[in-house]
TrEMBL record:
Organism of derivation: Proteobacteria bacterium 228
Pathway connected to this protein: Cofactor biosynthesis; tetrahydrofolate biosynthesis; 2-amino-4-hydroxy-6-hydroxymethyl-7,8-dihydropteridine diphosphate from 7,8-dihydroneopterin triphosphate: step 3/4
Stated role: Catalyzes the conversion of 7,8-dihydroneopterin to 6-hydroxymethyl-7,8-dihydropterin.
Protein name (record): 7,8-dihydroneopterin aldolase
Keyword terms of this UniProt record: Folate biosynthesis, Isomerase, Lyase
Length: 118
């Protein structure tokens, strides 16, 4: 299977388990790997035959920017299901990093894979 990818998509949102985190917006960095077959798009040179990384990024700004989850786990799971459903993806990898959440670490977060790789 081929992939369309997005790296380091920065989105500000309300996220966290502590009271002070419910009063601010924090920056998340998202990495996405979207499983697909790029051959139909390549052979026809046709954007309609492939998941547009621009459309996916716009959708994520809308969804993640408006979300209010506590855990990065929940956010990653919801993002995976939303993109698989709306962009008809057989497989996805979602990595959500929360830079600055642990001062002594460059990044913390989660990475999940959903669907079937074929
Ligand atoms: N596995 C997780 N651990 C923690 C999370 C999380 O979402 N998943 N969140 C927090 C706090 O919100 C943290 O980001 C504040 O610094 C702590 N641990």
């Amino acid at each position: 299977m081929d992939k369309v990818f997005i790296r380091g998509l920065a989105i500000e949102t309300l996220i966290g388990v502590f009271d002070w985190e419910r009063e601010i917006r924090q920056r998340l960095l998202l990495d996405l790997d979207l499983g697909t077959d790029i051959r139909p798009a390549a052979s026809g040179d046709d954007i309609n035959c492939t998941p547009s990384y621009k459309e996916v990024a716009d959708r994520l700004h809308e969804f993640v920017g408006g979300s209010e989850f506590q855990l990065v786990e929940t956010l990653a799971e919801e993002v995976a299901h939303l993109l698989m459903r709306e962009f008809r993806l057989p497989w996805i990898r979602v990595r959500v990093a929360k830079p600055g959440a642990v001062i002594s670490a460059a990044e913390v977060g989660v990475e999940i894979e959903r669907g079937e790789w074929r």
